[in-house]
Specification:
The chain has one helix at about 195-200; strands at about 10, 35, 50, 55, 60-65, 85, 110, 115-120, 130-135, 140, 155, 160, 180. By secondary structure, it is mainly beta. The strands form 3 sheets. The chain has an 8-stranded parallel beta sheet with strand order 1-2-5-6-7-9-11-13. Strands 8-10-12 form a 3-stranded parallel beta sheet, with no helix packed on it. The longest helix is centred in the last third of the chain and has 7 residues, at about 195-200. The radius of gyration is 18 Å and the shape is elongated. It comes from Pseudolysobacter antarcticus. This is Leucine-rich repeat domain-containing protein. GO terms for molecular function: ATP binding.
Length: about 220
């Protein structure tokens, strides 16, 4: 990839590729579409943006690396102003979900089925978010404010360690029924308030029915 400075699309998904994602991708300023999903890649996700110098993948719109064996942390995303799709689900990633500052075009965000911890980042700076999936991680803390995310149709945060109270759904709400999950988690029992909007969005009535679910192995979320 050393001589591909003008490359805009790189798509090798659904093969049997092994090894690591080469760090050289950061040096491809015209790259807008990157898909290596459904392979057997290992190692870490390379640095995508260099905020101090303003270099990196400034034109990156689609970054899809799901269903691999990637480890390490998710690199900073600040500076990827054109990013719309960010799919890293079904890997072995650790650490926290980085801040989404400046990602005003972000529409699809999926980090499900990893080992990510820490809080859910502020989402309100990405008003076009349509699909958000943080399921089956080790996230903690409260769900951030969702009020202005009126484009959101899918919101999955079940199977984490989230606490606090559940915020009101986006207003006006575009959440599809059923197209969301809030449980199981560790929400305060006081947060178990009736919400017809969340009942419809989750397809569960009342929405908190499975928040105290105990897995068969005795691990209580």
């Amino acid at each position: 990839m050393d001589n591909l400075a003008g490359l805009s699309t790189f798509d090798v998904h659904s093969n049997h590729l092994t090894g690591a994602i080469p760090a050289i991708v950061t040096g491809l300023p015209d790259l807008s579409f990157f898909d290596v999903s459904y392979n057997q890649l290992s190692g870490s996700i390379p640095l995508l943006a260099v905020p101090v110098s303003g270099t990196g993948l400034r034109n990156l719109s689609v970054f899809v690396v799901n269903n691999n064996q990637l480890t390490g942390t998710i690199p900073p995303l600040t500076g990827l102003a054109q990013l719309r799709y960010f799919y890293v689900f079904v890997n072995q990633l650790t650490g926290s979900i980085p801040a989404l500052d400046g990602l005003s075009q972000l529409t699809y965000l999926d980090t499900a089925d990893n080992h990510l911890g820490g809080p859910i980042p502020v989402l309100s700076g990405s008003p076009y978010l349509n699909y958000v999936n943080f399921e089956n991680n080790q996230l903690s803390g409260p769900i951030p404010d969702l009020t202005n995310l009126s484009a959101m149709q899918y919101f999955y945060v079940g199977r984490n360690h989230l606490t606090g109270t559940v915020p009101a759904p986006p207003n006006p709400s575009s959440l599809l029924a059923p197209g969301s999950s809030l449980c199981p988690n560790d929400f305060l029992s006081a947060a178990y308030v009736q919400s017809a909007a969340w009942d419809a969005a989750t397809g569960v009535m009342p929405w908190y029915t499975f928040c105290d679910y105990v897995f068969g192995d005795g691990f209580d979320l």
